[in-house]
Design a protein that fits this description.
This protein is of the alpha+beta class. The protein is 31% helix and 15% strand. The chain has one domain: Beta-grasp domain (Ubiquitin-like (UB roll)), CATH 3.10.20.30. It contains three helices and four strands.
């Protein structure tokens, strides 16, 4: 998982591995690992996500399958767009 901009600052890291079958599972694991970082927990609800370079958009996170060795990009809202 790659954290960008404000998500990176809130997580205190640029990236971390995931072991999950879906985006929902991966995000639940992030929330559990970073339970002591309330700013990150709030921010995750406002982020956009890319999975293996494809935009997740409005798809339910439980329906977004992850691949072993794939990538999840966590993109917080950026000023100006």
């Amino acid at each position: 998982m790659h954290f960008w901009a404000a998500a990176k600052a809130a997580a205190g890291t640029a990236e971390e591995p995931y072991r999950a079958a879906t985006l929902a599972e991966a995000l639940d694991a992030v929330r559990a690992r970073h339970a002591d970082r309330p700013q990150l927990l709030r921010l995750l609800g406002h982020c956009s996500y890319l999975v293996d370079s494809a935009q997740v958009g409005a798809r339910p996170h439980a329906e977004v399958a992850l691949t072993e060795g794939g990538t999840v990009e966590i993109l917080p809202p950026f000023a100006g767009g």
